């Protein structure tokens, strides 16, 4: 096939000879080029006929599905071919590849599975990590596994990391790789600070800034908002107030057709306003943009290892994200960016986004490692090592799901890993297969993976969602969200070779399936039945008093927000206590009373932390005191230990250094990690503790400073 990449007028063309030369001499390369330079489309085409590839394939990782399809289509058009010939793509539940395909564009989870299917990546000559600055957990895992394969099995395997913005010195030091840098073609962008926006009035304030901005400058407008709800509110305001403009939303859950409409020029020639999440920062090229309005916020999922729950948080973006967003206005001509914050806030924003591996649930990561044969993930070389506390939580979860035994993957764990979903959902599906509940489980799995199809006012009963899905199928109804859920459910039915069931489901069966999925979220009504529940993990959560499930004795919770003190239940199903019999365990428990410091012992019937029946035992021997204190600190240490302002400032400083200097081995001193691992480091200081007040006499800062090496202490001084 004859194709000359140097004939394409894109800024990245200037570094093609450099990239080709580096990959001829070295097995790892970093490419730094701004958005719009053409790195995602032109560089793979400039490489895939290089002699060192010897007919091997190129795999390219893209963080987003729309970007993966768009890039594959663009490369194919440059070659004058249809997608699926020389260039193909694989995304979840969809692929276009053939035996002629030489470059495959993959989304992140697909690449990890590709690696697991063949540890040596036989037949693969190059793996490209595009938009690596997004630092998703899938990209970090795939990078660690590719480097392990490269070092142990395939020194000829090339790895190319591409990004629009990277902490280059850090990355080059860790990867020990050369850098090819393209300056791209970026026009100047004027920055205007509008002052700090009220996070709770963000859609209204953003709409006002947009309406003023489009009067001051021509061209299309790209608006960054945290999430779908903010976008919909802002869209509603602009459709009423902004006449003669085309308004497009753009977020991950939007149907593909509407996403394409948002990134393509308007067919009628009208000016366009695109309301987007961070999906539009770098991965996608949006034609015609000269104005950017940046709310300064984004949404991120944060996992709390103490509660074992994740919560979706809206938070201030980093400086590099803000720069990426502003740069969107200068792709075609000089542009303008309205930042909805002050210059003072800009000065204090973090330099780089936090890698997802630092804040995510690591259950899939640990199972990936176990499938590879790695018991301790810290054996691998990570760009950012995963936090110990979150790893410990993931290991505990996988043991609960019978996926691990003594840290090693079980046969059941291998079956879980073979399914294209989170380990919890995979476990539920496999248990449902044994219990003859698969039709219900496939519907439930799809609902758990997608957005809630009903409004919040519908209540928390997840069975209402199952009924809505089955009505949709039976009546061939309308509704985009239910359509998305049915697409996923159909994929699971195909996987297990079963037919759909549109009959009436038993809500208690739904409860059993949810208990398989989240055994730690089995919940028992607190005394007084005031719509508050104790979870099997020891935490508490509540429902609205008006909700029909609020006065149930037992619930299996599908979705809740991890809040301090009392979580909020979003989705749940009633549970029949008779179904819980296999989960009830008899345990002898020794505990330390955090009120008066006494040691107590009892023989309990329990489901996790839920005590069904307790019989007092004689006072235990004092030798159990330290372990009992340590167990109490895991749950309540943030209140019992002297985390003074001085200690918190020190923790903050160390954690910032851990993030900015991962190569220097700074310890994880986050409160959650310290509490979960307190038995390892605090035990020598607990020997004289009799009463909870004695804990406040500890010099916690002095104790924690012993975590540091001599060099690290000198670095701080």
From TrEMBL:
Stored CDD domains: DEXHc_HrpB, SF2_C_RHA
Domain of life per record: Bacteria
GO-annotated molecular function: ATP binding; helicase activity; hydrolase activity; nucleic acid binding
SMART domains: DEXDc, HA2, HELICc
Residues in Helicase ATP-binding domain copies: 20-184
Domain Helicase C-terminal, residue spans: 206-373
Alphabetical list of NCBIfam families matching this protein: DEAH_box_HrpB
Protein name: ATP-dependent helicase HrpB
């Amino acid at each position: 096939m004859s194709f000359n990449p140097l004939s394409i007028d894109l800024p990245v063309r200037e570094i093609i000879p450099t990239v080709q030369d580096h990959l001829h001499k070295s097995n790892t390369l970093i490419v730094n080029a701004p958005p719009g330079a053409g790195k995602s489309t032109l560089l793979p085409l400039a490489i895939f006929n290089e002699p060192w590839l010897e007919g091997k394939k190129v795999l390219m990782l893209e963080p987003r599905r729309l970007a993966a399809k768009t890039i594959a289509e663009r490369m194919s058009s440059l070659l004058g071919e249809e997608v699926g010939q020389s260039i193909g793509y694989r995304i979840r539940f969809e692929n276009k590849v053939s035996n002629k395909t030489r470059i495959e564009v993959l989304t992140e989870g697909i690449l990890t599975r590709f690696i697991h299917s063949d540890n040596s990546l036989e037949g693969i000559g190059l793996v490209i990590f595009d938009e690596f600055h997004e630092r998703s957990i899938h990209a970090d895992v795939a990078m660690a596994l590719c480097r392990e394969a490269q070092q142990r099995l395939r020194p000829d395997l090339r790895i190319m990391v591409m990004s629009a913005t990277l902490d280059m010195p850090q990355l080059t030091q860790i990867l020990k790789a050369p850098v090819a840098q393209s300056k791209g073609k970026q026009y100047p962008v004027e920055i205007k600070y509008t002052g700090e926006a009220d996070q709770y009035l963000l859609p209204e304030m953003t709409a006002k800034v947009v309406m003023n901005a489009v009067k001051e400058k021509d061209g299309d407008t790209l608006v960054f908002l945290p999430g779908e709800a903010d976008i919909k509110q802002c869209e509603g305001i602009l459709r009423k107030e902004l006449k003669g403009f085309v308004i497009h939303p753009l977020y991950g859950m939007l149907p593909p057709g509407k996403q394409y409409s948002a990134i393509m020029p308007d067919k009628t020639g009208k000016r366009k306003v695109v309301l987007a999440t961070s999906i539009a920062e770098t991965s996608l090229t949006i034609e015609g943009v000269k104005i950017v309005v940046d709310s300064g916020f984004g949404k991120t999922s944060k996992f709390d290892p103490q509660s074992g729950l994740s919560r979706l948080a809206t938070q201030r973006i980093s400086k590099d994200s803000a720069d990426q967003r502003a740069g969107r206005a200068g792709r075609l001509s000089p542009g303008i960016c309205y930042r909805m914050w002050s210059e003072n806030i800009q000065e204090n924003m973090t330099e780089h986004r936090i890698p997802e591996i630092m804040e995510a649930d690591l259950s899939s990561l640990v199972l990936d490692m176990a499938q590879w044969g790695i018991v301790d993930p810290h054996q691998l070389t990570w760009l950012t090592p995963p936090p110990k506390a979150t790893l410990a939580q993931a290991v505990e979860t996988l043991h609960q799901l019978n996926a691990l035994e003594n840290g090693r993957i079980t046969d059941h764990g291998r079956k879980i890993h073979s399914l294209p979903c989170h380990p919890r959902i995979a476990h539920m599906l496999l248990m449902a297969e044994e219990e003859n509940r698969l039709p219900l489980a496939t519907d439930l799995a799809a609902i758990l993976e997608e957005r809630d199809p009903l409004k919040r006012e519908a209540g928390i009963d997840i069975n209402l969602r199952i009924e809505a899905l089955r009505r949709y199928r039976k009546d061939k109804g309308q509704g985009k969200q239910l359509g998305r859920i049915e697409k996923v459910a159909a994929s699971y039915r195909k996987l297990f070779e079963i037919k759909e069931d549109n009959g009436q489901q038993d809500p208690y069966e739904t409860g059993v399936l949810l208990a398989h999925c989240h055994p730690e979220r089995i919940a028992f009504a607190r005394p007084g039945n005031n719509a508050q529940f104790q979870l099997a993990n020891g935490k508490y959560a509540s429902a609205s008093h008006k909700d029909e499930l609020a006065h149930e004795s037992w619930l299996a919770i599908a979705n809740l927000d991890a809040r301090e003190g009392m979580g909020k239940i979003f989705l749940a199903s009633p549970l029949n206590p008779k179904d819980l019999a296999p989960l009830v365990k008899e345990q002898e428990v020794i505990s330390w009373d955090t009120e008066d410091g006494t040691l107590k012992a009892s023989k309990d019937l329990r489901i996790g932390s839920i005590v069904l029946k307790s019989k007092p035992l004689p006072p235990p021997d004092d030798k159990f005191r330290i372990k009992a204190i340590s167990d109490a600190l895991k749950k309540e240490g943030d209140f019992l230990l002297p985390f003074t302002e001085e200690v918190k400032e020190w923790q903050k400083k160390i954690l910032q250094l851990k993030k900015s200097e991962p190569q220097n081995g700074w310890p994880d001193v986050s409160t959650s990690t310290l509490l979960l691992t307190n038995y390892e480091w605090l035990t020598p200081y607990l020997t004289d503790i009799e009463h909870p007040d004695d804990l406040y006499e500890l010099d916690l800062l002095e104790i924690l400073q012993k975590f540091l090496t001599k060099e690290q202490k000198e670095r701080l001084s």
